[in-house]
Protein 1
Amino acid sequence: MKYTIRHVTTVKYASPVSLARFNVRLKPAPWPGQVLHHYALTIDPQPWTIQEEYGPWIVNRSRLFVRDPLTQLTIESKMHIEVQMPAVTDVTAPSPSVADIRKQALIHRDLSAMGPASYLFASPMALKSRTIAEWARPMLDPERSILSAGNALMHAIFTQFKYDSDATDADTPPAKSFAKKRGVCQDFAHVMIVAARAHGLPAAYVSGYLRTLPPPGKPRLIGADATHAWVVLWCGDALGWIGFDPTNDCLAKTDHIYTAMGRDYADVAPIDGVFRGGGGQTMAVSVDVAPEEEAALSAS
Amino acid sequence: MASDAVLTAPAGPRLQDYPVDVAAGDLYHNASPDLAAHWQTMADGLVTMASEAGMAVHELVSRQIADLGMSFRIAGDADERDWPLTAMPLLIGADEWAEVERGLIQRARLLEAVAADLYGPQRLVAEGHVPASLVTGSRYFARNMVGLAPRGGHYIHVYAVDLARGPRGQWRVLSDRLRLANGIGYALENRLALSRGTGSLLSDIHTRRLAYFFTELRGGIARDCQRENPRIALLTPGRFNQSYPEQAHLARYLGFPLVEGRDLSVSDERLYVRTIAGPKRIDAIWRWIDTNALDPLNFDARSAIGVPDLFDAWARGGLEMANRPGVELLEAPAFSAFLPRLCSVLLGETPLLPNVATWWCGQPREADTVRKRFEELVITPAFGQRVEALEGIGPVPAASLGPEQRAALAEAMARRPMDYCGQEIVHLPTTPALIDECFVPRAFTLRAFVARDTAGNWTVMPGGFARLSASDEIQTTLMGAGDWTADVCIVDSAHRAPPGPLPLSELPSVRRGGGFLASQAADNLFWFGRYVERTEATVRVIRAILGSAIEVDAAAGSNPEVRAVLLDLLVRWSAITKETAALPAPQACRAALAEVTLPGGVGSLLAALRATGLTLRDRFAPDFWRIASRPLPPLDSHRPGALLRGARELLERMSALAGLLNENFVRGPSWRFLDLGRRIERGLALCATTGALVREADNAWSDNGEALSLLLDLCDSQITYRSRYLTSAQRNLVLDLLLLDPDNPRSLAFQLEALVAHIDALPRLSEDLLPELPLREARALLAPLTSLTVEKFAPEHLAAAENGLLSLSSAISERYFLQYEKADAPGSESLLG
């Protein structure tokens, strides 16, 4: 599947900010089965410096330094990207047991950001929660296959939680959104991550996009008009990381475009930074994820 | 009891009476005969010295503690406590210590080698010597530090380690500390207090000195810097940090500027401190901040105490960090389970100093062992962070858990075994502690310190920080409630020449001035000066009101109208509310003194004085600090007499502060900012009181003799006036003395001349030497005062002076102080799916 993606973020400040430094994490990092054909990041006003970096997680970071005072910042991220159908598209496919995964993750020798060891422990935003651990226990029987266990967790969140963008914000801890049983994709992903890690399973946070308009006859996916977030579970060396989307109760296939992977939201936040001055700020985001055939059609 | 004492021996605690309890060993009872003799000398010496001075033994050190201004805070406490140092030090023989030193140096070499591998080739993980999860389990593993070798060549500069001694002198490592070497400054302070309080006693028993260690520590950091004569700063989390008093003391002792994140900025991969003379480059940082809080853009975005892009400065700009960010991961208890084996893998040596036997449950076999030997072990969080089913982050004896706790722990350990370690139980030995004039056994642990020296080699502090507790449970904090601390003396059998004076070339050259002045510190100094003066002005007004209520014939406004003017002034200064001002005068005065919510209340001003003073602790002499931090005098009465005494005491305190300021502060920029604050505030108070008392509604001067006399009182110029003029208070005479006479230190002209002189002496940013805005403003303010006669000086001039002073204060803030970056959270993409 080939997509044209345009993502525009506009931040407005009530009073001018100066010496602003931003981290922008919008360019898709390399991901198995995904090919980035073209990418362009446009910043207005033009920053004093832009540094492109990769890491320390599976993430591209553009570091912006805007020296002169600004009251509005517009970030436009455009790309052509190709997504191939992953090897695993069905949770009934054969996979190691929960007990196996727990054992392998602990003794693994891969210390890299793709290795399971980095996603085994609590992280700054995905803090431990005994309540979530208890809640997840019945779904994570040691003998169960990891795909089936992941599916159970995902399905439980999808059915027990209500999508509500007013219930939480970007800093809401998972235990809180869990107590409310409400939230957005970020909260659902965090809850699933905390649940998996509580039982010794490596789980990571993924940020990315969903195709905006569903194929004919299919329902529109939730979260398609903004950046999206879901979870990847480590399913052993053979299968690697498999994407579970608890907001839509489905595996990540060709409708999901990966931007970055980290321990939680904070590692891959689309934009953060520091500056002088400011006062209030407002942010507007528009995302358009169009399959390229469709883009070609609408252009003709 | 005294009748039983041997007549020739001084009355007091005797080491001979020390009870014997040697189950886990006792430092004194296990001492060799030679060393025991030193213990005797020390103990007898303390008693003799105290009895000759006619004081209790404890007073020998408690006086020094007060003089040094030593204090500490327990986590969760708002207030600092007195430092609980017992007079009797721990004595350790040089032979025994030599073994400990060798062991510690080996361990430091090992930790350095492990850090270099994990942040370099990661051979240990690839070859299976340590599982990846042991590394990632620590929140201090800094993934973005991998592959960035330190330019100075070293990951670790300062290393602290907690030790326990076995009955036969075999020492064991309880825990490693690479994040913060807290205790290192207290060890130094303990020694200073003890040696100052006990004359030559310490050298009589051949105690090794600590000073060389600190010289070496400084040299060790300096040698890894990129420039000659590097500027090394101590980076503190700020005055609310528990160990802030220790950090401030260390900074002063080592001559390192004490800086906070907001003092610093990074530009082109170099680190600068903002000073009143513009940015100055920093070459090295001794950090007292966690890795994760160092840089909000490269580590935890929520950090408010870090420096944006500090990462770039050490990763690429050559900034030396002691210690290198990320090395803290090695202090996890889980890691100590692997160190003995890594010692042979990396160094090809067997460990000289064992650590407490530790099993990390992240490995199936070890987890099994812990399950089987559960009853005889302590369970501890594997990575120094809270885990499920255990309270706190310290070791918990498994046997002490109730059935429910056990079940919860077993369940949590089954789910996440990697979060737990089992460790053998250590019984702590005792040492004689001198508590309440009696030698009593106290369990002790010793925190030892290792640092790189001027040659880059490891050196061990000959001494350390001893923590004495009533129980022998191992604690994770430096000090807890009810604990004591003692100096640790490494004792040679004979007098040993000190390592010698420093080589001539390394002696500092003669210098004057106080180095640079950070903008933040200048800001605090300025406000400290303002608070001192504002407190004084407010209390003077209160005193005048109270005085009028007592002395019937006082010059001090017995006239109710004048009194109302003064109360109104207190309302304008936000010391009381309008409603309070309507109360009987003594009640209103008491309210103004006790007020802690309104910003102008005396209680609030003293609190602000104290809070600002805390940030300046490394610059103030203890005397100064003691006066500044004294609480309000008791105000338990509404009787004007008692209140008046309270007000007088406060005024005396402010005078004492002013006196110390004038007599003891070196005449550098620091003093100038303190004095700038005082002069501005005094000028403002002069304008306000003069305006209130002698300006009429139609904007002319009044001729009210009573008001004029009161004004002289408030400005402390009554005596001057009387000695100069034999007449009662006359308007022009008073106004000339208080506004225009440049020789009266209480006059407006005097304040402005001082302001001009101070600002003129401060550094300028540009090289063209044109006067900057604050100087131009100050000169403009002074001009009318020097050019007008009192007849021509109209109330408008006074109003202009008052506005001008406020504007000057802003100009000074803008030019010299900070407007620092504020972290924001634009990450809250509200439209997130």
Protein 2
Amino acid sequence: MVEILPGIFLAITLELSIPIIIAAMGELTTERSGVLNVGIEGVMLSTSFVAAYVHWAVSYLPAEFSIYVAILGAALVGMILNLVLAVMSTYLRADQVIAGIGINVFASGFTILALFVAFRVFDTTPTVVTSYSLSPLARLPNFGPVSPFLAIMIAAPIFTYWLLRRTRFGLRIRAVGENPEAAEVAGLNVYRLRLLATALGGLLIGLAGAYLSVDFSPRFVRFNSRGLGFIALAAVIAGGWSPVAVVLTGLLFGATYAVFIQFGGISGQILSILPYIATVVGMSLASKRLRAPAALARPYVRE
Amino acid sequence: MRGVRKTFPGVIAVDGVDFEVSRAEIRGLLGENGAGKTTLMKILYGMVTPDSCKIYLNGTEAHIRSPSDAISNQIGMVHQHFTLVPPLSVLENVILGLEPVSNGMLDTQKALEQLQLLCKSTGWSMDPNSPVEQLPVGLQQRVEILKALFRGAKLLILDEPTSVLTPLETRELFQTLQRLKEQGTTVIFITHKLNEAVTICDRITVMRKGKITGTLSKAEVSFDELARLMIGRPIHKTFQKNPSTSEIILLECSDLWVRGDSKKDAVRRVSLVVRSGEIVGIAGVEGNGQTELVEAIMGLRKVEQGAVRIKGNVRSNVRPLDVINSGVAHIPENRHERGLILDFIVSENTLLGFQFRNEFSTRGILSKHSILELANKIIRAFNVITPSTKTLTKNLSGGNQQKLVAGRELSRSPDLIIAAQPTRGLDLAGTEYIQSLLVQARNEGKGVLLVSADLDEVLNLSDRILVMYEGRVAGELHASEATEETIGKLMGGVHA
């Protein structure tokens, strides 16, 4: 039996909750507008590669610049990929689930191909300098290395909550996600709002992707997103589309990961299914009492 | 509006109509379903693009191509199907699309003040923070009206606003409309109910088959004249019924308790009896347990307590097929959801519920010939107008879809017919036909349980009337002693 160290357990929990929660907030914003992004895994995978690639490509810059350029690049690509999905599921009236699966398939093939084209390797990119060594917080005494992504993890849910509850844009997102027909009658542009919400969501998913290759591990390896995108998708559902509950769910999923990482070995292998079991259990419990945005995944066709 | 014309593929919806309405007037727009009333008004509201139309507001030509154009021209419309966002609050629904903001954030304070002002002008009090999905339909409708007024509507179009209201709520709505009129608002009131049009409107315009057949002022209207303009012939309101004397009990519910979707008790201790040769009407505003009651009888919903007996045998909590096989036909409340598979062709829909019978399949292979024969038999016997048996059911008109459902159910030769909102959304001719089928079945000695939110229908057809309110039977009346007044009170929870 391996002893569980509370400090390390907490650290691993946070490390894994960061990408889940940030990506889940992106997915939440998208879904509240009525667009289901099943392609979240693919977007995370692609942006994770983009971050590593951009960092390598601009390595002539000073490290404190190149890392942020890499992160911004990933966020931008996340927005673009999500926009592709949004255009398909609004103007082109594609089935959102199929479009999302398309993005996932595309991403898994594309990143492998790109690895080879860019680096002539099949498995992993050169090491990226980790971002928290650049973080101002890291220089505080007794604070230890703190990732700036932790700040994003805390800020993203607060921002999402504020956006949805307190702003005009948020009210309109909720309206088009629940009843696009009514929103249209009220004079709103359903497609444009869905596009904006999805783009904003893509930005967050891109940040989560960047985290995986510049911070969580300092390189991009094949299938670097590790199913965390799907876990984030599940967290949104299990958390009932409410920012607060989604954060708690994300932390819970992170903690189950931490359990199996601490155990390691054979028992670790067996325990590695824990997060997935937690997801399945969480989702089946949730689906009974929770209600999705009414227009989720339903293409809206203008009369 | 001048020279309005709109054709849909295969139909002329509005055929060269000129329509005008003056300031601070309540104008009725009366007509059957499909007469073109709603289309005409949707053109005015910019939701339907006409083939030709010129719109003049206060004497100058206005170009209205979208609802937002209409809104900026101070035109508001309350649709038959509400355009509210259910989980959002009253306030959020009212301000949506026109939200007051300060520094990019919603200015809730200002919005509240504006809402209160509107409430004052209509004479309503509303809780601005309750989600509209938790409000009864009558209040939801008020939210719709407030929404239109918030957008500055001086011309308010109401599409069949009373179809979801109790008689009391209808009266309250009429009071508010009068009030708005006194404040200078023009109201166009779309309806197919003659008596409502006569009660509230200053003038009534009647449409039939896309054309205006007449405009009458309040002083000169008569029911007969309106009905003639509306359907082109007088209506016969009464049905030939022979006295019912049978004592054979076909359906008996005793102390029935059923839960609704939200796990709350929807049906509370309901007992009722349907005998052979009688129509028992269940009146009540929708959502008072009627749906759950019917589903429990049909085996579609669990009976918590009490029993359903069909011809003396206990039939609660059995499979729907067992109920059907006991000789029960069901005309479901929502024909699109439970009555038909819209993406199936006509002959597939006529087969539903018959598919187990051996004559329609041999060892799992459908026998085309006998299926077609059945479809043709039903189509002929019940006047279903369809291009062919291969037509997709969703392409039939509402009336013909309902004839298809009713025809299919009645051709099972049932003893008991459960008809839930059988004439909802049908025009006068279709309504008359379906109602005559029910009366005919009754006269043949069958039992009919008729659930309807349409008070006239219940009063016209039933031998006995039960009123449901909040899951209970609020009262039971014999047809001879029932009036709109007494039932209306029971429907609204007032004890008679």
Protein 3
Amino acid sequence: MTTRFAEVWDSDFVWNFRHSPVAILALLVVSVLVLAAIFAPWIAPHDPFNPATLNLMNGFTPPGEPNAFTGETFLLGTDDQGRDVFSTILYGLRISLFVGAAAVFLAMVIGVILGLVAAYVGGWAETIIMRIADVQLTFPAILVAMLIFGVAKGFTPPEYRNEVAIWVLIVAIALSDWVQFARVVRGAALVEKNREYVQAARMIGRTGPAIMMRHILPNILSPVLVIATISLALAIIAEATLSFLGVGAPPTQPSLGTLIRIGQGFLFSGEWWILFFPAVTLLALALSVNLLGDWLRDALNPKLN
Amino acid sequence: MSAMVTIRNLTRTFDVSKPWLNRVLERLPRQKLTAVSDVTLEIEEKSVYALVGESGSGKSTIGKILVGLLPPSSGEVRVEGVDLATETDPKVREELRSNIQMIFQDPYASLNPRWRVKDVIVEPVKVRGGKTEGLAEKLLEQVGLSAEDAGKFPHQFSGGQRQRICVARALASNPRLIVCDEPTSALDVSVQAQVLNLMSDLKDELGLTYLFISHDLTVVRHMADRIGVLYLGQLVEEADPETLFETPRHPYTQMLLAAAPKLDSFGETEAVPQGEIPDPINPPPGCVFNPRCPYATERCRIERPELRRMGETRVACHHAEEIARKLSLETA
């Protein structure tokens, strides 16, 4: 076991990581935020979504100061309804991370499959898939996501809207983001497709799907991984943007973007903390995921080592 | 001895036209590249048939058609009486497929870098749901590697060792015919001999038939039972090695042999081949070799010579007899 550990510890990849302070710091921040999101129900001092535990008298308590009426102290203050900002951030982080990760995963599945098919099948399939991708790229991603969100909202009965909102959000972000994966996968797969090991597999009698999934896919995973990491940051920001615009996560399940939208209303009346802390959390999350993605891109690029 | 492979009037063209929009805008016609043109040959069972030619002469294309990687444009390829391009019975196709294997040119590209050696080797068997237990280890030992190598990845091996792994993979499904597409051209000279000896031993041991594609005449001379010389997709001469090297009939073969470096002619200047191989999109009319041929006449520029028998040799040249006479006078 020790040799196995030493092998991994000394591998280029881990060595690279150990010698990159930015990467270590970014991973640390991401880990803390992810753990905080996962364990939110146990960490959060209050349950911000249980009206029974809320006291309107606690509204607008500044961070770290006792409330003038109840004497309670909140680490990061409270919002207009007396909800603990720290707790709402933890729960908001949960929604943001879940939506971001699920959207990227869905985008990755769609993009990888379509990219592989475009490269391997070629001909009309490739033309159709890549032209759709090109057309979609001419619209801003956020516009595409809003369009999908709007259409989906029109089709869902009002009583289910809040329930499906999160899932619609995930699909909307995924459908605006798959193009990146498809293009990168197609490019990488076109190179691999003509290598002799793929010809060998074809000659042996492997079918197209088996060659794509078992032969080509493992060899193009590193660019996909890099895109996925960078897309995660973009998806979290896209979710926050949509929620900020009021078309994303509903107020009953606020994400970081929803919290920022709520806080924005109190910015000019002096209650800065309602906006500031969710915004800083979002910034830290997006920035460290992005830095991690940048490091990953460099680490997996053999030309830079 | 019976013919295991019969290739009749095999032709393969590739569409090398520009994209549709360019053709419309620039008023260009469709362009066809003829990689293999009207090739007819037979490969005897348990023999080594070598195809030689310059790059672009269509030798790899013939190999790929034979293993079913490319369909022929016209003509037929029968292996043990079955034509892969037209046979529809899946059982017969599958059986034939497992009877034909291929060894590729570049051992660095022909092994999937993410697969363990044992998975690579047993893949041809696994595809057909065969038993694979202990097979990789057995085959590795058969090709001169050790059974412990089965768990390693391809990047942990040298070029020669990788080519041995490719040989092991080719043997896994118990094939009867192996197409070797320049199996040694990517290897060091010292390793080439080892791999060639291995292949030749395995052939005797397992009763294999090889189609050996190469541009290296010295390699071919030692391995082959019969040699076909390709020029611009056409078979210009075919003979057994001894006849071919002693009395080459076709002017192109003569030029090739004259250009090959020899040990005993150290310090002498070799006759460098004249001219370039022509553009296969617009091949010259008549005999394809006529622009480079010192014996070319008006007839050669108009009429394509048929491949015809001349002693032990089959040759496609209008003037083969005259040339033979002239050469024997010169040497006498």
